[in-house]
Amino acid sequence: MSVVIANIGTLVTNDPSLGYGVLGEIASAAIVLDQGRVAWVGDSSAAPAADEHIDAGGHAVIPGFVDSHAHLLFAGDRSAEFAARMRGEKYTAGGINATVTATRAATDEELESNMLSLVGEMTRSGITTWETKSGYGLTPGDEARALAIASRHTSETTFLGAHVVPTEYAKDSDAYVSLILEQMLDAVAPSVKWIDVFCDRGAFDVDQARVILTAGISKGMQPRLHANQLANVGAVQLAVELGCASADHCTHLDSSDIDALAGSATVATLLPGAEFSTRAAYPDARRLLDAGATVALATDCNPGSSFTTSMPFCIALAIRDMHFTPEEALWAATMGAAQALRRSDVGRLSPGSRADLVVLNAPSYLHLGYRPGVDMIHSVMKAGSMIYKGIA
Ligand code: NIG
Ligand code: FE
Questions:
Q1: What CATH number is given to the structural domain containing 267?
Q2: What is the domain count for the chain?
Q3: Which residues crowd ion ligand 2, with CB under 5 Å?
Q4: From the CA of 274, which ligand is nearest?
Q5: Are residues 129 and 276 both part of a single domain?
Q6: CATH number, domain at 55?
């Protein structure tokens, strides 16, 4: 069945050949959806007939957000750690082990229901494609079960067994790396697309990360990397060296890191929720953008450093505190993040793409940054089906 959505205030296509600017904006637009795909976009007055007609009432329509970085497979609560940070304590990688204990103790049903409740929040914030990492099990069995649960709900699954060294291996991190190489990779392989390592101070060093990622690649996994969140340990250079789809966080960057990212196909995925919630300095997004690096924005939803599922909040932070233009921020949360997942079917609204879209309670996407903290999501469609209708 085909659907036409007409009387759209501004339609963002992310295809510059279809409209104005880098976002390919069309004013007074319509979009036709058929069989879960976009069939046509253009001026509302020229819209072809369809089986169903929806009047957008002058609201803006944008591509569904793509969340290319989240950690949704966990149990437990670390709100006290957040409160301690707001009193002045520093964020360290070690906090992850608190979540590991709670996650190991949870049943499969609890893990799945915790994950789906966060996915529900994501949907209500306009996210239509989401990635999730493992990384709070840290045994072959616990990592495999988490990823098996995730793979029932998303194709974007990431093995992050190298998140932190679990306490039982505290005195011998190389033995834990051996466990990953010799047992975990095979245990998780049926359920994963990606492999990731937290390459940072207090987690894994560049040599360990190189060995783990290379072994994952040899088993058919595609690499991405948590790079330089807490210190510049050389992780961005490693991400580029290994052809990672994305180097994530990039909080600590030097000029050679910026040049390396700008000269590569590795996307710099920035996670402003993490700097906000750990009260850290933001990465130098302006230098990355001006150098021509491809930049994505994602939520980094996790119980320690960034417990948010709101992409509009991340966009508002990127604009206000990281000096993105509103156009750059919306592009990064849609097309940029799609590229970070090496996906060409999502993140845009042009003929042939998946019909994933958000109707905003506003005439223009500018209101995402202009009205911070206000729910601007009117309704959300995924593959042409309505998956959320707000109260406005
Ligand atoms: O991306 N940096 C590593 N992993 C998460 C935080 C994990 C945690 O604190 O539980 C992140 O910020
Ligand atoms: Fe993360």
A1: 3.20.20.140
A2: 2
A3: 300
A4: 1
A5: yes
A6: 2.30.40.10
Q: Are 287 and 252 in contact (CB under 8 A)?
A: no
What number of H helices and E strands is found in the chain?
A: 15, 18
Ligand 2 centroid–CA 387 distance in Å is: 26
Does residue 187 share a domain with residue 41? no
Instruction: Assess whether 235 and 172 both reside in one domain.
Output: yes
Domain extent at residue 105 = 65-340
Q: Answer yes or no: do 14 and 119 share one domain.
A: no
DSSP, residue by residue, 3-69: EEEEEEEEEE-S-TTTSBTTTTEEEEEEEEEETTEEEEEEEGGGPPP-SEEEE-TT--EEEPEEE--
Instruction: Find the mean pLDDT for residues 205-221.
Output: 98
Nearest Cα residue to atom 2 of ligand 1: 198
Q: How far is the CA of 258 from the centre of ligand 1 (A)?
A: 23
Q: Tell me, yes or no, whether 161 and 270 share the same domain.
A: yes
The set of residues, in sequence order, having a beta carbon less than 8 Å from that of 141 and lying 6+ positions away, is: 187
Q: Identify the pLDDT of residue 392.
A: 62
Distance CA 132, CA 39 (A): 30
Q: Is 103 in the pocket of ligand 1 (CB under 6 A)?
A: no
In this structure, are 226 and 143 located in the same domain? yes
Examine the domain organization and report whether 57 and 89 are in the same domain: no
Q: How far is CA 23 from CA 41, 271, 336, 364, in A?
A: 14, 21, 12, 12
Residues 147 and 271 reside in one and the same domain: yes
pLDDT in tens, 327-366: 999 999 999 999 999 999 999 999 999 999 999 999 999 9
Q: State which amino acid sits at residue 270.
A: L
Contacts of 172 (CB under 8 A, 6+ apart): none
Ligand with the closest atom to the CA of 70: 2
**What's the CA-to-centroid distance between 388 and ligand 2, angstroms?**
26
| pTM for the model | 0.98
Question: Does 198 sit in the ligand 1 pocket, CB within 6 Å?
Answer: yes
Ligand 2 centroid, distance to 129 Cα (angstroms):
17
Q: 95 CB under 6 A from ligand 1?
A: yes
